[in-house]
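tl;dr need the bound structure. longer version: we got a ligand (zinc ion) that a collaborator sent over and nobodys looked at where it sits. i said id run it. heres the input, straight from their email, havent touched it
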Amino acid sequence: MRSTSLIAPSILSADFCRLGEEVDSVLAAGADMIHFDVMDNHYVPNLTVGPQICRAVTSRISAPVDVHLMTEPAESLVPAFAEAGAAWITFHFEASRHPDRTLQLIRSLGVKAGIALNPATPLGCLEHIMDRLDMILIMSVNPGFGGQQFIPEALNKLTRVRRMIDEGGYPIRLEVDGGVKIQNIGAIAAAGADTFVAGSAIFSAPSYGEVISAMRSELEKSVGCPEN
Ligand code: DX5
Ligand code: ZN
């Protein structure tokens, strides 16, 4: 049974000078959680925010904060983000020398654990860790920047991961990140995603509410949506 769809705006495309207001605005506009992109200029060629800013956001809102670590080694920042109030912590399979151990560490701190797969990461890496996962994040762009084009092969990958989740009966959310827009969110949901990260599509629009509502109506129309 597919979980309810969640929309998670990525603050990467927000106005950082007004981060608190931006977070309030997307939540008032109907977002379900805040996607918090952490980049270290090592695993990815860009640098963003750390646990201190995460704490500022989690103290301000009651909605969950979905931390996406694009940092290497992934595990070293896990305790600080757990302490900063993250509800979810997702790291990249290649960024941890011992992904199984890192997943256990995240859960041991009372946080939901996720693994992110880059466009070129094969699905075999999931095979022996399904029991340790609360979220699988399929990257539909190469990590590091907002505003990139959705890579269509991600649809095939989502379909295959959805089958793995459903056949095993695992309570795992299937998140997609990169290039998600009103125009493609229906097809992405039909392929199996239930959690949708969108940065530039939301924050570059004059009305966040209009974009989020349009995304929701596309999700309702989609054949893969549990509401149907
Ligand atoms: C990319 C980040 C994404 C990004 C999404 O490395 O993980 O969360 O901000 O931005 P858009 O929706 O603009 O592709
Ligand atoms: Zn992200």
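gonna send this back to them w/ a short note. Residues 10, 12-13, 35, 37, 68, 70, 141, 143-144, 146-148, 177-180, 197-201 surround D-xylitol-5-phosphate (ligand 1) (CB under 6 Å).
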